[in-house]
């Protein structure tokens, strides 16, 4: 609990949101970027639960590239008609790290 809290504080103090780091760091980055407004860790909110995304692309070696791009540029039609807005404020590397983290959620 304490460690997660510290990670959250560290992440929120940095001007650039994303850090290379542990799952707790990445969860803090996702939180800071508003991902949890639309995604649950497991369950669907507006977009699919992150665990559902990980299950869908299990074994797909191209998925991190594709999803990193989609997180930055937005898109729709994979999970339903509701689009995900673009997150152009995220750098390519940061979006890719978020995609890798989502894919690692079981
Ligand atoms: C305003 C709501 C909203 C926000 C904020 C949002 N998403 Fe999404 N996300 C969606 C929706 C809706 C979909 C389903 C899009 C589709 O069907 O293609 C989605 C899909 C996804 C997918 C799966 C894409 C695919 O092609 O299978 C990933 C990964 C994802 N979001 C990650 C993120 C991350 C990381 C963030 C934070 C930076 C984020 N989302 C913020 C609504 C949102």
From TrEMBL:
InterPro entries: Cyt_c-like_dom, Cyt_c-like_dom_sf, Cyt_c_ID. The keyword 4Fe-4S does not apply. Keywords: Electron transport, Heme, Iron, Metal-binding, Signal, Transport. Residues 1-20 form the signal peptide. The keyword DNA damage does not apply. This is Cytochrome c-552. Residues 21-106 form the Cytochrome c domain.
């Amino acid at each position: 609990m304490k460690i997660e809290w510290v990670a959250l504080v560290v992440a929120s103090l940095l001007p650039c949101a994303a850090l290379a780091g542990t799952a707790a760091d990445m969860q803090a980055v996702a939180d800071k970027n508003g991902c949890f407004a639309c995604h649950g860790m497991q369950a669907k909110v507006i977009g699919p639960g992150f665990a559902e995304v990980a299950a869908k692309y299990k074994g797909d070696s191209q998925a991190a590239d594709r999803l990193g791009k989609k997180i930055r540029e937005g898109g729709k039609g994979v999970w339903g008609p509701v689009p995900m807005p673009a997150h152009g404020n995220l750098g390519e590397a940061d979006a890719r790290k978020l995609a890798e983290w989502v894919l690692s959620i079981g």
